């Protein structure tokens, strides 16, 4: 046992290979998502030899601010990272704090949710449109759902909005409907979520919803560019036709201050700010207000598999999360069982921190930018 308030000896930055099970294609706004991004990680080592680590995204902050400091000067167990300048280490600092206190992050966060966290498959993109010269059609999406079911997934989020950029509007809208219905027919018990990445307008989206009204969508995500009146109109339409269908918003560059009143008024049911770029500390501050307003959270986790595990700890810790975004894939040196759901559920045990041992040295590569 070391001290409960160790000093940080070193901050090391490295890169880990990440591989999706297959190339992930286009969505309503962006081209191919590739076969797996590099994952940048920060490794914190204390003077008494303990280690915490985790992903960071974007440019690293100032390492010199952290080396030589006491852990208690950097993170508070009750609130999270103390100084905004150190927020890029949000995950690694929470992991280290868990290691030092011998507690899982979900317990540090309050243990308000279940440690059996439902996870949906977030990797069903527009692969029916590829390759461009010989599109594979809807069957490939059903194959992908079946493959991901083999990896433990039971619920699926379908990208829609093909008519925004990649197909003529009418043709794309028809394909979205066909895909949604085909997945429902093949997976009668699945929760089906759809994500348009703002690729519709209100009228077009309601037309889509009318055509899939009997599918029973679990949630609709980013149907169109944020607009309070349009969201209220969509909520009213759903209340009449499909009251259980949730509206999820707030992933793309969210102005959280502007979205909160819209959510509190009942027009957004789930807020989606990213588990890394918005961050764990910000979610810790926000979630009680969301819960009081009757709004759920579900941190965006695409496109790194470890983000799903971080989001699951957030869900189990802060509560008020119904389901978390799953990113199928492998991370070099990480036991795949720590990243994959079983029967649609990621189980978190009592291992300290995020419960993911630091990958072996051979997997930690120099960061190339
Ligand atoms: Mg999305």
UniProtKB/TrEMBL annotation:
EC assignment: 4.2.1.40
Biological pathway: Carbohydrate acid metabolism; D-glucarate degradation; 2,5-dioxopentanoate from D-glucarate: step 1/2
Positions of the Mandelate racemase/muconate lactonizing enzyme C-terminal domain: 138-241
First-level EC class: lyase
Domain of life: Bacteria
SMART domains: MR_MLE
Pfam families assigned: MR_MLE_C
InterPro entries: DgoD-like, Enolase-like_C_sf, Enolase-like_N, Enolase_C-like, Mandelate_racemase_C
Reactions performed catalytically: D-glucarate = 5-dehydro-4-deoxy-D-glucarate + H2O
Protein name as it appears in the record: glucarate dehydratase
Lineage: Bacteria, Bacillati, Actinomycetota, Actinomycetes, Micrococcales
